[in-house]
Amino acid sequence: MVIVTEEETIKYSNIRLPSQLENVIPLSTSERLTSQVSTNIKGSKMTNKCLIGNDVVQTYDEKSYSYKLDDCYHVLSADCRPSVRPSVLGKVVDGKKYVKVYVKNS
Q1: Structural contact between residues 61 and 51, judged by C-beta atoms closer than 8 angstroms
Q2: pLDDT value for 44
Q3: Rg (CA), the chain
Q4: Closest CA to 75 of 85, 64, 84
Q5: Which of 20, 81, 98, 100, CA to CA, is 20 to 30 A from 91?
Q6: pLDDT tens, 10-24?
Q7: Is 90:73 a contact under the CB 8 Å cutoff?
Q8: How far apart are CA 56 and CA 92, in angstroms?
Q9: Helix or strand or coil: residue 98?
Q10: Is 0.85 surpassed by the pTM of this model?
Q11: CB burial class (10 A; 0-12, 13-18, 19+) of residue 76?
Q12: CB under 8 Å, gap of 24 or more: what pairs does 49-53 form?
């Protein structure tokens, strides 16, 4: 590994890393850290958003499904861990989209 600054260039070699990082390293400064780690571990890119529109839902792992929202709230995203329970609900009424976001104790 080489670190270059205006003042100096530092070269590291034979860096020993824990075996748990075997599938995570190398990382690049040109891409978001969370995106790189999820790609290196999962083998596929994971985004931090899901999309809903035109009767299609695109999930965090960028898979698309045909799904039509109606005037009842539908669970769009949820985390079922007991310590954190965020969820996102959505509906469409007369072409207007409504979203509710719940977090623990709300």
Answers
A1: no
A2: 65
A3: 21
A4: 85
A5: 81
A6: 998 888 877 777 777
A7: yes
A8: 13
A9: strand
A10: no
A11: buried
A12: 50/76, 50/77, 52/76, 52/90, 52/97
- Total residue length of the chain: 106
What are the pLDDT digits (tens) for 23-77? 777 777 777 776 777 777 767 666 667 777 788 888 777 788 898 889 999 988 8
Residue indicated by tokens 């290196």: 40
Half-sphere exposure of 43 (CA within 13 A, CB side): 0
- How far apart are alpha carbons 42 and 59 in whole angstroms? 15
Tokens describing residue 62: 């960028």
Q: How far is CA 27 from each of CA 15, 21, 49, 71, 76, rounded to the nearest angstrom?
A: 14, 11, 22, 45, 31
